[in-house]
Amino acid sequence: MATVHFRLDGSNPPEPTKEERERFDALRDEDIDFSDIPELTDAQLAEMRLVAPGEVVPTKKQLTIRLDAEIVDWFRAQGRGYQTRMNDVLGAYVRAVKRETR
């Protein structure tokens, strides 16, 4: 028997059929079985960031950069995720400068 490979494009899911839509519409929240989905922890929720529908999440580029030790030490002292926070600060600066130059 041949193996069929299928890749679902998460950004372009197939339209549900009429029967599927009717079944979804009839489904009540209390009928949904969440038993195989673990609860999210506070730590996981804290790591999440809101992404608006249709928003493109930018790709990251790896690079080597020299920063003042004081800057790196301060961000590292904030704990896990310090590189993401550094990126967020730089991103906020870029957006602010772009707003000023409009």
Automatic annotation (TrEMBL):
Residues 1-23 are annotated as: Disordered. Pfam families: BrnA_antitoxin. InterPro entries: BrnA_antitoxin (IPR025528). This is 3-oxoacyl-ACP synthase. It comes from Fulvimarina endophytica.
